[in-house]
Amino acid sequence: MEHFSAPQRQSAIGVVVMFFDTVQQYARALWPILVLWIFRFNQMDKMMLAIGTVAVFIAIGVVAYLKYRNFTFFLDEAQGEFVITEGVLNKTKTTIALYKIQQVNIKQSLLQRLIGVYALDVDTAGSNEKEVSVKAISHEVALALKARLLDNESRKPIGPSEETVETHQAKPFIQISMLSLLKIGLTTNYIRTLGVLLAFFATLYDNVLRFSNQGYLDEDQFTGYIDRALLLQSIGFFLLVLVAVILVINVVRAVVRYFGYTVARQSGSLLLSFGLFSTKSTIIKPEKVQIVSVTRNYFQKKMDILELKIKQATSGEREESKQAVEIPGCNTAERDAVLKLLFGKIPEQGAVLLPNFRKLVFAIVTTIVLPLGIFLGVVALAEENLLKFTWIAPVYAVFAMTLLYFGYRNYRLFIADDFIIKQSGAWDVKREIIEPQKIQAIAVSQLFWHKNADIGYLTLHTAGGAIRFQLGDFTTIKQYVNLWLYEIETSDSNWM
Amino acid sequence: MENFTNETLDVAQLPKFEEVQMTPLHPRYWRVVMLTWGLIFLVVLLAIVFGFLFSPDFRPVAPKLLVVVCASIIPIVALAYTAFRKKAFAFRTHDVLYRYGLLATTTVVIPYNRVQHVALHEGWLSRMFGLATVQVFTAGGSSSDIEIPGIDKTQAENIKQLLMGKIQKEL
After folding, report:
1. How is residue A277 annotated by DSSP?
2. Is the pTM of this model over 0.80?
3. pLDDT tens digits, residue range A435-459?
4. Interchain CB contact of A90 with B (< 8 Å)
5. Which residue of A lies nearest to B17 if distances are taken between CA atoms?
6. Contact criterion met (CB below 8 Å) for A412 and A350
7. Chain A closest CA to B128's CA: distance in Å?
8. Nearest-angstrom CA–CA distance, A146 and A2
9. CATH for A351-490, among 3.40.50.2300, 2.60.40.10, 3.40.50.150, 2.30.29.30?
10. Which of A264, A301, A314, B101 suits a disulfide with B106, CB 3.0-4.6 Å?
11. Does B124 reach chain A within 8 Å, measured CB to CB?
């Protein structure tokens, strides 16, 4: 068995891997220049080009060799650390405590297969990208190193390997009915569907015009038809159709995506399965949950439905787990049941932190005053034919003002002993719930002109994303930060 | 939960992160910053000179551009100096603090029991001045990692040892 106790290099053949890596890296950085050269290929001196190319490849070769020389790794048994040193001009030394390592993956790309070496990636919790990667070692060394890296008892395995799905055993405690899905379809995603529709019709119109330009259709007749059709229809009717189409699309989407949604309890975890054509199953472990958000708008409140979103800690390359898991169309009781299972109790609201009025003022300036100022300025400077559009300005102002006002009024942070809840949103009111123990890092920030007003920003980073609260009372924020730090630092509670 | 207690916390008595005496970056780091900017200026100036010499189209614009570049030196140096002075760090018993920012002053706090791993960077310029950068990683993603530049090489090694020691203790 190898020891790895002294710094060692990769396989000598690894220079080749380094070489192609460096080529790729430079090509990515310099591709605009390369493209330019290709277009000018004919005008260039072929001799110079050949010499230049050779020189560049020699230079890259030297860099690759130096990279190979300077890349070393070793295991510090006494400290329980894996240490990697790399870099030619800028040197980096990365130290990873062995018990923090979550995954070690041995991989082989095509190039690596051709020259018979393996890459070994080391992953710790949290960040999506792999922490370190040893790019060229022999299979024996890779296996031995992997064994040594994972050979410590305190390591708590997480990750997908343990997630065995046994669907048939669990008894669902929430079943989302067809009616709830209909309600969800009727009350969500108006804007998104509108955007998709607009994009769809824009491309369609574009294609039809192109089609007609090729002589299959008489263009005048076609556009004339559209004009007449538009004249015939009142705009109101058109809007009605549009709304109907959006609603139908939303309902179909909700039904196809979430048909037969069941939530079951399975040895302390949540087991979700849903889907009309293909059933998807997901397991949620309460200890891995970082942020739970509950979203509800006015209509949904009247119908007693809401949407739950659960963000979990990410580990390793499981990029898809970064995406939140959605439970659409629960009612209040079901929400409480899910929250109780995830958090052990129903999150209470606690003390309220409100934003300063400047948040509203700032939002008004950036979304109403500035754009309208530019718009009206353009209208004033331009010809009269733009003048008939000035009615847009007051309509937009009233609409935006209403949204901003409600957004401001709903914006608040609830702080209880065990929960922090951020509420935001104008129409869809969203509540993001985190536990102070899940906080990874806290950032407080203050613009220098907010010093006298004593207001500032708070960002709470978790392994499932950050929660940011803007322009709250800074003294209060700092007090809570000290409290949270105290709580995090005096307990060993597991955040995932 | 065996020795669980639940007294009322006197929040006012908790240690205050905002009153911690922060360590500024090493004075030699200012030279690194200046040299970096000096090199950038040098490249820009060389580009202008080359343009002036070899491109007739560019010739009339070159003097104006030169004036703009020269005029921007003082504000850039002033801003760089403010940014340099604002940066400071502190290592408490249980967490690391890093402060930075020009318009907004931001303080990031990472408790040691949330640190995933540590990296020590030595840029080629920094290395000439015996300085290093300490980067602390958490599971909160790149936005919550902190990178403290301009620390004396030996001190940076010590800090790394300290951090790794703290991580190991959390076992």
Report:
1. S
2. yes
3. 999 999 999 999 999 999 999 999 9
4. yes
5. A482
6. no
7. 11
8. 11
9. 2.30.29.30
10. B101
11. yes
